[in-house]
């Protein structure tokens, strides 16, 4: 499987990413599987990701830099094999890159803070969501911070 190195690709704004590391620093900070997806635009196997079926309420952040990306209330069941969201937390937390790899035309989604590959976004598939978009995101690109349980604080 061919992978693209995202470590030296500039942001779509043309500005450097706020979080920058050398390839060696990324390799030291991430597991080999995380590095393969986040820094080489790989894909984890379908239906095996940590967050594919989770219903836990909270915020999903970039596993590479900690930027908050998605909330659990925008996660929905698309049955595609990866966590699906219909909208990012804020419009400027992700960036979009035209992806023509593997003979397909897709839109890659990256963390706007560090340039890490998250997955792809698809539109017009007919899901009953407010945006009719499916952000198909690799679990390994994310880290879930569960909402605090109000009952536990009492």
From TrEMBL:
PROSITE patterns linked to this entry: MSRB (PS51790)
Gene name in the database record: msrB
**What sequence ranges are listed for the domain MsrB?**
23-147
Q: Where is this region: Disordered?
A: 1-23
Question: Which top-rank group of organisms is this from?
Answer: Bacteria
- According to its UniProt record, the EC number is 1.8.4.12
Q: What is the reaction catalyzed?
A: L-methionyl-[protein] + [thioredoxin]-disulfide + H2O = L-methionyl-(R)-S-oxide-[protein] + [thioredoxin]-dithiol
State the protein's name. Answer: peptide-methionine (R)-S-oxide reductase
Query: A Pfam family matched by this chain, by name?
Result: SelR
Sorted keywords for this record are: Oxidoreductase
Q: Does the keyword Oxidoreductase apply?
A: yes
Mind giving the lineage of the organism this protein is from? Answer: Bacteria, Bacillati, Actinomycetota, Actinomycetes, Micrococcales
Question: Gene3D superfamilies in the record, alphabetically?
Answer: Peptide methionine sulfoxide reductase
| Classification via SUPFAM superfamilies | Mss4-like
Checking PANTHER family in the record gives: METHIONINE SULFOXIDE REDUCTASE, METHIONINE-R-SULFOXIDE REDUCTASE B1
């Amino acid at each position: 499987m061919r992978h693209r190195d995202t470590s030296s690709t500039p942001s779509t704004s043309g500005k450097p990413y706020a979080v920058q590391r050398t390839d060696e620093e990324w390799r030291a900070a991430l597991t080999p599987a995380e590095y393969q997806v986040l820094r080489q635009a790989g894909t984890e196997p379908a239906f095996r990701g940590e967050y594919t079926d989770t219903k836990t309420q909270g915020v999903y952040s970039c596993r590479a830099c900690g930027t908050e990306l998605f909330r659990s209330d925008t996660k929905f069941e698309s049955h595609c094999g990866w966590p699906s969201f219909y909208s990012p937390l804020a419009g400027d937390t992700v960036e979009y890159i035209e992806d023509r790899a593997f003979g397909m035309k897709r839109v890659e989604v990256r963390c706007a803070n560090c340039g890490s590959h998250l997955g792809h976004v698809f539109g017009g598939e007919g899901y009953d969501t407010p945006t009719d978009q499916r952000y198909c995101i690799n679990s390994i690109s994310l880290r879930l911070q569960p909402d605090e349980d109000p009952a536990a604080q009492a």
